[in-house]
């Protein structure tokens, strides 16, 4: 065995014996070591950099001499001269194995490296995007073997990259010949190869192309469209941006948009046009922000609820507005982005939409499942994606259930008298002193509380304009904790609660949170109607969760994850005071941020995740709240504030506050009581 | 075995035993008998009609009683009432086997029936088109199993038709839901399933759809675009139509179009637009002519030379104008027709282009190979597709060679002083009396000879306008046979040949074929330049054929097939006098008509033919005339008229005519001589 050498790769630990003179890249490929290469070992791309280790490796019983690899060659010297090679690095395709050696593959040389997907949780994902660049050398045409240029490109891809069955859009056939000749029969192929094995050429560049490939992960919500621009090589998010869904002018919530489509001929087409135009705008904006040419965006991944899904695809959503809520298609879709008129990006860019789980439980919920992986959880986890509709997942590695609950837009500040969207000037945090009943609050755009010095100056520009979703939850919960509400949700009178901030309003009362009228600003109050709207929303959310718990025959969950952009801002304490979520230790309630967006990003960066979620969606058991009588029961039973206390001792005191007096002071409360 | 019965199907002869009560359609399917059904046995489509035979069948040792099939049922009675069922016919899905029986499947109930593809030769082809209608019953949506409508359609197609892996254009997903509901969950799917197993939905109709599906077989020539409109159920040609290729305004022949593309920026785009617009016009015209809605044309098959191929696809043909004549792509293409802006037909219609054989030997030659099948020929066959370029195939079941020969447009009447396209008024047949040297001729549009009574009246409307391709071949051959030309092609003087029809023209002579000047018509002559042009063209054609014969090391061929619209009009005798084609018994020279068009029609009607020609094209050995020194040798050697006589005894006399005198009478002839 004098002519071969032991080679150990780190961090994989893969090892094997190779003949002297074997290039490191060749050895890595034979062992299945994850070592990148775009040029296929021609010393052009420099992606296969490795770091040989010299000296003693007692763990492996190895002494590695300085002569274990061949000396620097001209290719490496040239690369170092022009680009600079890090100290200790070699090019894997140039360095040849001459003796026993330990070779480290640094993270940036790994194709399928793990990347942190969320800073907060340090969760990792594997980089394995569908689209890669491949450098190939194509045989020149020969009159004696008159195959087409495309067929010789196919043969080169097969021979040099073991990739077969290439497809190309006619538009690329049109450009192929001049590109091959310009590159002198060397070209870089941008290839989309999906998890079903389809290989489609998206672009061809003459010679070795050093450009980068980008993808957009898009969370297409009813209210906002949010996108991450990702570098497809390393998964880095270069920019994140969002804009309002322009469909809002056709209806605030999903059902009003479905109604618009039903009531107006061509209404769905209008909405489809509007959302596609917005996505094009967003793509251009986000690329410009990151200093990237939008034409280098070669992939898009969409997550969205079923109505947005249909409107994006140009499908009339009318069937989603009525039982049995049939989706036109539930499976994932992989199509050319230009089929949906997304023409701001690369002309051959691909578009992937995650599968929908059911007519009410969309690709956004599938994305949450992909990001949070309840199907891999040891403990029983409840995941709530709070938006206009709440998507709810419950389960663990044994079984996962899903449903959608019609919370309505109250949690987003709509249908609330002083409600508004989360925007500068909106009240987002509230505290009410249980003794004085005086409030303090914070508004978006400032870190100061309203009682802090300098608050007026800090908010002078934005003003104090209303209450956003998280603010409305806090203020209602705080009112309850301060004894301004009875358990049925009825607001007491000034006399009953002992504060002039409670003012009569019709036959009920309202709480004055902020009076800006003296300075020309609004009077911000919380009315009985607002309380009722929040009660309806939180009861719906709670009832959905309970329905899934019934299905699993459990009374408690081990942990709760609040997902959604709004979920990121909800205070778990207030959510529990309000009774939005089932009983659970407070420290087991976490926020997942925009989990749907994270799921989209994972699907963008890793095609195996696409396969995984497509399979998982078929396993998730769907529960339809609309036809389940127990949903109504839970809904009615969940009306009180709060209705579950075991894990929140402070609340035990609050529920002892008198509620007798309130019950007779207004017919509205009495009516509600009777119904309960 | 009292409970089962022997069933024998004719004409297939397939037989088997089946339990009493088995529907005939079920028995046929189990035995693999080719019995049609669109509705899958629901008694809706009536495609599965059969004819039971009763009485004695001594050959099978069977006596079939009248009770061998169940009695007429209500479904059959209703069908007979409404549509009428032919005497003796039953519906195979309704009639149940009750005893031993012989069942005949009439041709119109066979899916893969053979149809005559050319009346002249009685050749047959199998009907097996890519696009079929399938009636399916789809499960209604269920909130408890919330799959999409498309997924339930997929499941139905799998269960009821064993077809999997359906793909649908987004545009169909858009229409799916209302169609399913309008059809009350019964729909007819128009499915394109190609020879690679791809299954793509082209359309969906509510309920059982009784419409017909049509296809266009298009021979896209440099000069004319010809199309057949075919019924995809039975292969019938409903209409055939053609129009001029509008690219003619960019250049008469292929190379001048390539030049136009090279010399004018965007020139290729102009030509692409022009030809696509013409194809849309042609599709509309031909459908209107046949009384068919062009939207029911769901498939198109194209055959064309490589330059037309590239211009149709929108590929700049510049590489085809210079060695090594590299095609952008040589394989067949199966794409949506709308990718090529063919929007006059069904919006989801498919387009199939046959593979090209080489940079000079296109999909049209592949189509000729498909129609004429030299690869299945026992004897050695030479197939010549005569056009602006001649495509030549030579071979038998052992081996087939192909080449293209640059005949130039002389055979089509171009570059001939009195030449014109084949159109009413053009001289197409010529005879010259060897004694008087007087001509008689026929023009397109009349069956009379110019010497017949009534000829003047018959041609009064069209006039006598020029000589078309077949006419020019005949007149040159006749001139030779009448002793007006010497073997080198030199025209003699009036004195030498003894006729005043030979007139001086510069330093050479011309033959006056028709003088219409007295009545305001043209003077139609055959000049020395015309003779030279025809000599060049015929030498090129002959040299190409010889080159292939050299490759096979043969001196003679067993038979010759003249293909092409022009080939259909060439008189074999004159072609041989001229020396266009190698030596061969005259009765072994046949015309195949528009074999390329026939090949297109076969590929349209039978997907197995597509697979066959794709495989065959890879086996055909291509010979490139442009780089083969022997081509030049053969070309020069073939200049004389004629140069091969063995099979045409009359010619033996002709070549004995004096040629000495001609050789000195004009410098042009002398020059030509020296070169030879």
Question: Can you walk me through this structure?
Answer:
The structure is a homodimer of 676-residue chains. With 676 residues, chain A is an alpha/beta fold. The first copy, chain A, folds into five domains: 4-109, Beta-grasp domain (Ubiquitin-like (UB roll), Roll), CATH 3.10.20; 131-206, Ubiquitin-like (UB roll) (Roll), CATH 3.10.20.880; 214-353, Nucleotidyltransferase, domain 5; 372-409 and 534-643, Nucleotidyltransferase, domain 5 (2-Layer Sandwich), CATH 3.30.420; 410-527 and 663-675, no CATH class. Chain A has a six-stranded mixed β-sheet, with helices on both faces. Chain A has a six-stranded mixed β-sheet with strand order 32-31-22-23-24-33, sandwiched between helices. Chain A has a five-stranded mixed β-sheet with strand order 2-1-9-4-7, covered by helices on one side. In chain A, α14 (595-605) crosses α15 (607-619). The interface between A and B is large, with 47 and 47 residues.
Question: Secondary structure elements and their pairing?
Answer:
The structure is a homodimer of 676-residue chains.
Chain A: E1 4-10, E2 15-19, E3 22-23, H1 24-31, E4 49-53, E5 55-57, E6 62-64, H2 74-82, E7 90-91, E8 96-97, E9 101-104, E10 114-118, E11 123-126, E12 131-137, H3 149-161, E13 166-168, H4 170-182, E14 186-193, E15 199-206, E16 214-220, E17 224-231, E18 237-244, H5 254-263, H6 267-290, E19 297-304, H7 306-313, E20 333-336, E21 350-353, H8 363-372, E22 381-385, E23 390-396, E24 399-405, E25 426-432, E26 439-443, H9 455-458, E27 466-467, H10 469-481, H11 494-497, E28 502-505, E29 508-515, E30 523-527, H12 528-552, E31 559-563, H13 572-578, E32 589-593, H14 595-605, H15 607-619, E33 621-622, H16 629-637, H17 649-654, H18 660-665, H19 667-675
Parallel strand pairs in A: 1-9, 13-15, 16-19, 19-21, 22-31, 24-33, 25-27, 31-32
Antiparallel strand pairs in A: 1-2, 3-8, 4-7, 4-9, 5-6, 10-11, 12-14, 14-15, 16-17, 17-18, 20-21, 22-23, 23-24, 25-26, 28-29, 29-30
